[in-house]
Amino acid sequence: MFAGKKPVVVVGSINIDLVANTERIPVEGETVLGTDFQIHPGGKGANQAVAVARLGYPVQMIGRLGDDAFGAQLRAHLEGAGVDVAGVATTPGTSGVAVIVVGQKGENSIVITPGANALLTPQDLDANIEILRSAGLVLTQLEIPIETVQHLAKICAREGVPLILDPAPAKELPPDLLKDVAWFTPNETEAAFFIGTTDGLSDPAPMAQTLIGKGVKGVVLKLGSRGAYVASAEFRELLSSFAVTAIDTTAAGDAFNGAFATGLLMQMGALESARFANAAAAISVTRAGAQPSMPVMAEVEQMVQRARGNSHPGAKAGAESE
Ligand code: RIB
After folding, report:
1. Contact 23, 154 (CB under 8 A)
2. What is the DSSP letter of 232?
3. Considering the domain boundaries, does residue 313 fall inside one?
4. Ligand 1 atom with minimal separation from the 252 CA
5. 250 Cβ inside 6 Å of ligand 1
6. CATH number for the domain including 72?
7. Among 40, 49, 105, 136, which lies 20 to 30 A Cα-Cα from 284?
8. What span, in angstroms and rounded, lies between the C-alpha atoms of 206 and 200?
9. Which domain covers residue 227, as residue numbers?
10. Dihedral (CA of 256, 260, 266, 272) sign
11. Which contiguous run of DSSP H or E holds residue 184?
12. Residue 291 contacts residue 47 (beta carbons within 8 Å)
C-alpha cells in the first residue's frame, strides 16, 4: 500500500523490558508481591519503529544492540515486525534493559540501564547518512546520548528532513537544539520539565506557547486521559482522547509518536495525524507490553471512524504514559 514512499527513520533505543505486574507500585524501601511477570521487546526508539511498521508504513531504524542473548532476540523482533534494521549495529556488551513495574490501573514506573544504547555515537549517524537522507521524516527520543541527538538535529536541518523529538526521558537539551525540531511531543511531566515549572499545568495552551517560544515549530502535548493539544503557527487545538479501559499504559506515548509520524507522511495534516495517533495510543493501553500492544492500521481507522459517529467521545486513556 505504501511501497515507494519515503520511510520514517527512527534513531533511538532498543531495550528488553522485564515487566512485573503488581496490585500497587511499591514506595521507596517497600517490597510488594507481584501478580505476573513477562519479558517483552521494548525501548522507546524500537517501540516507535514497531508502531510505524504495524501500521504498514515503511520504517528504518538506527540504533545499537549488545552481543548478548537479548540483542539477538531484539533484532529478530524488529525484523519480524517489518522494521528495516540495516542501521542497527551490534556492540560487545549488554543490550539496553528496562525494569518495569505495572500497577492495577495500568500505571507504571520504569528504570532503564542503557547498555549498548549509550554507545550510539554521532559517527554512527554519519555512517548511516544515506538512510537519514532517504527519510520522509526522522523520529527520535532521549534514551540515546544527547550529543547524538544534537548531531541528528543538525543533519536533519542540513538535509531538509523534518525531525520529531519525543523528549523522553526529559533531560537538559543544548540551547540551539529545539530550533531544528519540527514537532516536539512531550507528555505533561516532560513539558513541565522543559518549561521549568509545574504552575498552570492544567492549561495546555500557555505550556505549548512557552515551548514554541523556545524555538520548536510545532508542539503536541500528550495529555493522557485529556487527549492531545496540538499547536503550531497555523493552529491550536485540544483533541479529546478515546474511551477505553487501560490495563498497561507502557509505550502509549510510543504508539502515539509512531502513528503521528505515519499520519504526517500519509499527508493527513497535523490535526488529523494527532487524532489518528490518539486512537493508536488508546488501543495500545488496552494490551500488555510495549511492542506487542501496537495496533494495525485497520484497528486505528476503525476507532477513529467509531468516534466520528459518536458525538460524545469519552476521555479515559491517552498517551501520557511512557
Ligand atoms: O516508553 C516505554 C519504554 O520505555 C519501554 O519499552 C522501556 O524499554 C523504556 O524505554
Report:
1. no
2. -
3. no
4. 1
5. yes
6. 3.40.1190.20
7. 136
8. 8
9. 8-13+44-93+117-308
10. positive
11. strand 183-184
12. yes
Looking at the CA of residue 290, tell me the nearest atom of ligand 1. Answer: 6
Q: Does the beta carbon of 42 lie inside 6 Å of ligand 1?
A: yes
CA 18 to ligand 1 center in whole angstroms: 10
Quick check: is 63 in a domain? yes
Does residue 124 carry a catalytic annotation? no
Report how far ligand 1's centroid is from the alpha carbon of 64 (Å).
15
Q: What is the pLDDT along the chain (322 residues), one digit of tens a residue?
A: 888 899 999 999 999 999 999 999 999 999 999 999 999 999 999 999 999 999 999 999 999 999 999 999 999 999 999 999 999 999 999 999 999 999 999 999 999 999 999 999 999 999 999 999 999 999 999 999 999 999 999 999 999 999 999 999 999 999 899 999 999 999 999 999 999 876 656 789 999 999 999 999 999 999 988 899 999 988 999 999 898 999 999 999 999 999 999 999 999 999 999 999 999 999 999 999 999 999 999 999 999 998 887 644 333 445 655 5
* CB of 48 shorter than 6 A to ligand 1: no
Can you read off the three cell numbers belonging to residue 293?
500492544
Element (H, E) at 47: helix 44-54
Could you give the angle at which helices 69-81 and 44-54 cross, rounded to 10 degrees?
A: 30
- Residues 171, 146: contact at Cβ < 8 Å? yes
Burial of 50 (0-12, 13-18, 19+ CB in 10 A): buried
The three cell numbers locating residue 286: 488496552
